[in-house]
Amino acid sequence: xxxKEQEEDYRFIPDPDLPIIKLPESLVQxxxxxxxxxxxxxxxxxxxxHKIDKKNADILTKNLEVVEFFEEIAEKVDPKxxxxxxxxxxxxxxxxxxxxLDQVNIQPEHFIELLQLVKAGKLTxxxxxxxxxxxxxxxxxxxxxxxxxxxxxxxxxxxxxxQEAIKKNPKVVEDxxxxxxxxxxxxxxxxxxxxxxxxxxxxxxxxxxKLLS
Length: 213
What we know:
The protein has helices at residues 25-34, 39-50, 54-61, 64-74, 79-96, 108-119, 125-133, 155-168, 170-177, 181-194, 201-212. The chain folds into two domains: 39-145, no CATH class; 155-212, Arc Repressor Mutant, subunit A (Orthogonal Bundle). The termini are far apart. It is elongated and about 95 Å long. The protein is built from eleven helices and no strands. By secondary structure, it is an all-alpha fold. The relative contact order is 0.07. The model has no long low-confidence stretch (mean pLDDT 91).
């Protein structure tokens, strides 16, 4: 379409107005050492160090604040246990409130404390999620909410909630006995409401099944 120009037009020769700058290797290395981790380096670190699958690692590395928050949590809590609480529950709360992590004041130590209470069996997952909802706009020590929020694991106490759920929902009980599995899930939801999300879901399921049988 056109004839080639002179080699000067392709910048094959040095520009006489621009002096050559020689950077010593030590300076180059110093600059490299000060650079933050690239997203790819962060991704590889998460996969190797914390044994996280690539899909979840990708989710974390899309947001610098979130990935750094996770890394701080993972120092005190099992990374595999903490993973879903960050990539699902924390992001759920932020998205619901239309906020990013840097726009709210969620302290890592409060988040760690919350997960430790769940892992120790002192809070149910549902109750912990409810407390997490209240971390916006600023977090607090979950121990301040622990009184009256402790997980209920005693079968006798859970049976009372089951009996009440059955008594209040005779039609749902009938539906379950007619083969509708979703009716059973509804009854479990009623137990959680009656117990203020404190009943151990596994024990509640076992007790309710025993009563309906």
